[in-house]
Specification:
The chain is mainly β and 237 residues long. The chain contains three helices and twelve strands. It has one domain (10-236): Phosphatidylethanolamine-binding Protein. It has helices spanning 10-16, 156-162, 224-236, and strands at 17-18, 33-36, 39-40, 46-47, 58-60, 70-81, 84-98, 104-105, 125-133, 170-176, 211-215, 218-222. It starts with 9 loop residues before the first helix and ends with a helix. Keywords: Membrane, Signal, Transmembrane, Transmembrane helix.
Length: 237
């Protein structure tokens, strides 16, 4: 069930796609490598068994070359609340830096890592990891002072604007589902995404940032160059 999907154009798309989760409000121009234990997340949106997420993942990026620090967010898009789906902040860490072998050094952070824990019987939840350049003299805006106690209902777009974060550097996402038993409650419908709702809104982008590309049921947020590569790949299929 948790096996990885192989794409005929895997190497081509993996290099070019930007992988925030479908429906995530912000896209990134580059892919962030995410590693849980010995498992490097691939493809983006890989379904990960929950026990494997007990410890925070490791990250690397071959495209983030700046010596300046960054800000990492991890957000669940699919938390059921009052008949709808809302966001939950799983991790917020500033002063993220690049070390040897392109590995990211991630502090515990202002909001420590929280293991994915979707309700039993609910649809798979999508968890996006996204890194932004850290502004000079960065601090958490005052209105977010109690985020550790108020993770549910987080608004990524508003936080990014209020904190003065710019265009995202890189992103990736996983999915986690709780299959330990049968559902004991009724859940709201799955969140509309670009892949299951033709009229769904695309995420906020910046000049030259991503556009949706769906391959094998997985949505990739790809830039203009990626779209051109995808066209070549489509001919080859």
């Amino acid at each position: 069930m948790f096996g990885k999907t192989t794409f005929g154009v895997g190497a081509l798309i993996a290099c070019a796609a930007a992988q925030s989760a479908p429906g995530f409000p912000i896209s990134a121009a580059q892919s962030l490598t995410v590693v849980y234990g010995n498992n490097t997340v691939s493809p983006p949106g890989e379904l990960i068994p929950r026990p494997e997420t007990a410890q925070s993942p490791r990250f690397s990026s071959s495209t983030w070359t700046s010596g300046a620090p960054g800000v990492l967010l991890m957000v669940d898009l699919d938390v059921p609340r009052n008949g709808t789906r809302v966001q939950l902040l799983h991790w917020l860490a500033s002063n993220v830096t690049i070390g040897s072998n392109n590995a990211l050094n991630v502090p515990v952070g202002q909001v420590p890592y929280l293991q994915p824990s979707p309700p039993v019987g609910d649809v798979p939840h999508a968890y996006t990891f996204i890194v932004f350049p850290q502004p000079a003299n960065f601090s958490i805006p005052e209105q977010y002072a109690n985020l550790t106690q108020n993770r549910v209902g987080f608004n990524t777009s508003k936080f990014v604007a209020d904190a003065g974060l710019g265009q995202a550097i890189a992103a990736n996402y996983i999915r986690v589902q709780n299959l330990t038993g049968a559902a004991t409650t009724t859940f709201p419908p799955a969140r509309p995404t670009a892949s299951n709702a033709p009229n769904a809104s695309a995420p906020a982008t910046f000049p030259g940032a991503a556009q949706p590309l769906i391959v094998g049921g997985v949505t990739f947020w790809a830039g203009v160059a990626t779209a051109m590569l995808a066209g070549v790949a489509a001919v080859a299929l």
